[in-house]
Design goal:
The protein is an all-alpha fold. It has six helices and no strands. The protein is globular and about 45 Å long. 16% of the residues are buried.
């Protein structure tokens, strides 16, 4: 039951971010601090990429089209969240400079840790 709940949580969590990247023009500015018009267009391809991953998670949840294993997909999400957390941690600790010189928010370090924790819980409860 816990792997199912984790699977559904990843669908909702990723879907929320994917829809915000695609349709919310202020999401990149408010969440990541990019104030330029390019920030709106920066997030859209990433939002569509995340939408594809979420659709694949839905297909594996309901085993549509012969997709029955989500392990590969979830491992890719895990690698992505590890790299995202390390990058944001390096920006927060000022190991790498930010794009505008402003301090990096701790919320950007914590966000990738949420799905990473869910994936670790799913891994240990399979």
């Amino acid at each position: 039951m816990i792997p199912f709940i984790c699977h559904v949580f990843l669908i909702f969590f990723g879907g929320f971010f994917a829809l915000n990247f695609v349709f919310n023009q202020n999401f990149a500015k408010n969440s990541f601090g990019y104030d330029s018009i390019e920030a709106v267009y920066m997030g859209r391809p990433f939002g569509f990429l995340m939408s594809g991953v979420i659709l694949m998670l839905i297909a594996t949840l309901f085993q549509i089209g012969g997709f029955s294993s989500a392990n590969e997909l979830i491992s890719v999400i895990f690698i992505f969240t590890v790299l995202g957390a390390l990058y944001n941690l390096a920006l927060y600790l000022k190991i790498w400079p930010t794009h505008n010189g402003n301090p990096h928010d701790i919320k950007n370090v914590i966000r990738p840790l949420i799905p990473m924790t869910v994936i670790v819980i799913r891994f240990f409860t399979l």
